[in-house]
Design a protein that fits this description.
This protein is of the alpha/beta class and 552 residues long. Among the domains are: 1-83 and 509-552, Urease, subunit C, domain 1 (Roll), CATH 2.30.40.10; 96-214, Roll (Diaminopimelate Epimerase, Chain A, domain 1), CATH 3.10.310.70. The chain has 20 helices and 24 strands. The two termini are 39 Å apart.
Length: 552
């Protein structure tokens, strides 16, 4: 449906006159406040009572709600927007990335090896060394690396280095030895071992093949999970995030999240997509949807992964990759199981969110959703496709027709545009990151980052939506500029549209009376400054439920 129709049902009834005159706990005045509420899009002041917005409007009216114990926040002309929400993240992955070897931005394989060798100097004998962030597309030699240089530099510690997209890994000889990987090892279902001309594994594992080594890496303890989660939440708050959609979380990690929330330590609203085997998912759906402690955790959605990623040529394509004839990517989830889960989810009131990047994976996802909805006709199911990166012209209108939400990441477009045409050619690239084409059909697009694949700074994806340019303003005018959004749509994509995609539009996503008092103070007006200035914006404060969780 069109957003204008959706927005008309989002607005809450105004508070009564008596309630309006009760003193506020906090008033925010003397600023420019963008509400993402079409009835009051820009105001000068707001008031908070408890953890909710009590009023938005003029400064004089807000001042009238001040009492003897009211805190006054004078913005001195600064800008406020609703708390930003990243609609596709990996929270624990961000926390883990903060403590392992950072390989983001490495410009050569030699640089990767050097960073890992430096970490190995302080590693215990036999300790696993982990890293994340390498991307061969950033190197002068864009071929996948082979393990030999890494194995020579670090022979005695097993090494596991996740590619930037999370859909491939590079391991050394010691890691392959511990995992029992040899030339005789077969490719697993939904995965691939990259091999040399003689059939020997090169050390690169794509998609499900990562599990061959992953299963022998010691799991983090619950305390380690909690520590990494707290670090990730603090990082998210620093960038102005008050909410996230956590894309693929195991039941064990959800339990750790709940303990942190019970202890009052979870300063984020997390819409959790649970990922588990089919039997475990069936048990979760029988338990029913739930809201966890302190309005911090929502559990009503399921994550399925249909294919791999474009950068590692695992995204499932209808035709061969332009730069690797004979390869059409990988389907990583059995389609019959996918259909069974979708039908069960509709019957139990759970949302299904499927990772699909290639045009073949997107078509399969839409076909399965359509079949499931034929079997269990359901209004307002809000099934989602996560990424929806490469679409055929024929499949674009199917999202609106089926009521499926394309959940997309602006920063993926600005990261991938340098090599995407080499992967898939110009004609298929015309259906890549097709925001304008999708919006024109009447859907909404919740925006995200997929962190730690990309930076957790939501303003990167915000700016990408309406410019389609990188931080250096390349390419001039934008990559396939006809797919740009407006700046107003870009703001909705990180505020109200993620709330709608998570069934949370009645309580969050806009600065509307009755909703959570989640907002961000910025040092500049991101809605009016030059495009080139947006990424220089600093978050001055992040408020969750009317309380500061970050101050610069």
């Amino acid at each position: 449906m069109r957003f204008s129709l959706v927005a008309s049902v989002l607005l809450l009834s105004p508070l009564g006159a008596a309630a309006q005159q009760q003193p506020a706990d906090l008033i925010v005045v003397n600023g420019r406040i963008y509400t993402s509420d079409q009835n009051h899009p820009v105001v000068a002041a707001l008031a908070v009572r408890g953890d909710r917005i009590a009023f938005v409007g003029s400064q004089g009216e807000a001042e009238a709600l001040a009492g003897p114990n009211t805190t006054r926040l004078d913005l001195a002309g600064k800008t406020v927007i609703p708390g930003m929400v990243d609609a596709h993240t990996h929270l624990l992955g961000l926390g883990q990335a903060l403590r392992i070897v950072d390989l983001v931005g490495t410009e050569s394989y030699d640089a990767v090896v050097a960073r890992v060798a430096e970490r190995a100097k302080t590693a215990r004998p036999g300790e696993w060394i982990r890293g994340r962030g390498w991307d061969q597309n950033d190197w002068s030699d864009e071929r996948f690396p082979t393990h030999e240089a890494l194995s020579r530099a670090v022979p005695n510690n097993p090494v596991y280095l996740t590619r930037v997209d999370g859909h491939a890994a590079l391991v050394n000889a010691k890691a392959m030895e511990l995992a029992g990987i040899t030339a005789a090892t077969k490719d697993p279902q939904g995965g691939r071992l990259i091999r040399d001309a003689n059939g020997n594994p090169t050390g690169v594992l794509v998609d499900a093949a990562q599990g061959l080594v992953g299963r022998v890496i010691p799991a983090d303890s619950k305390d380690e999970v909690k520590s990494a989660t707290l670090a990730a939440i603090a990082e998210a708050n620093r960038y102005g995030l008050t909410g996230i959609h956590d894309a693929g979380v195991s039941p064990d990690v959800i339990a750790a999240y709940e303990e942190l929330a019970q202890a009052g330590q979870y300063n984020l609203r997390n819409y959790v997509m649970v990922r588990a085997d089919e039997q475990t998912l069936a048990g979760i759906m029988r338990q029913g949807r739930r809201l966890a402690v302190n309005d911090r955790l929502w559990l009503r959605s399921i994550k399925i992964v249909a294919d791999g990623a474009l950068g590692s040529r695992g995204a499932a394509m209808l035709e061969d990759y332009s730069d690797e004839p004979g390869n059409r990517g990988l389907i990583t989830t059995d389609t019959a199981a996918f259909h069974r889960i979708a039908v069960a989810a509709l019957k139990s009131g759970f949302q299904v969110n499927v990772h699909a990047i290639g045009d073949r994976a997107n078509r399969i996802a839409l076909d399965i959703f359509e079949a499931a909805l034929d079997a269990v006709p359901t209004a307002d199911h809000r099934f989602r496709v996560e990424h929806a990166q490469i679409l055929t012209y024929q499949d674009i209108p199917r999202f609106a027709r089926l009521g499926v939400i394309p959940s997309m990441q602006g920063s993926h477009q600005t990261s991938d545009m340098y090599w995407a045409i080499n992967r898939i050619g110009v004609s298929r690239a015309a259906g890549a990151y097709a925001w304008r084409s999708l919006l024109n059909t009447g859907v909404v697009i919740p925006n995200g980052s997929d962190f730690p694949v990309e930076s957790p700074n939501p303003l990167i994806s915000f700016r990408a939506f309406f410019t389609r340019m990188d931080a250096s303003d390349f390419p001039p005018g934008g990559w396939f500029p006809g797919q740009r959004t407006t700046r107003e749509e870009a703001l909705l994509s990180i505020t109200l549209w993620p709330a709608y995609a998570a069934f949370m539009e009645d309580v969050s996503g806009s600065l509307t009376p009755g909703k959570y008092a989640d907002f961000v103070v910025l040092d500049r007006d991101i809605m009016t400054v030059a495009e080139s200035e947006v990424l220089g914006t600093q978050v001055l404060a992040t408020y969750l439920g009317g309380k500061p969780v970050y101050k610069r």
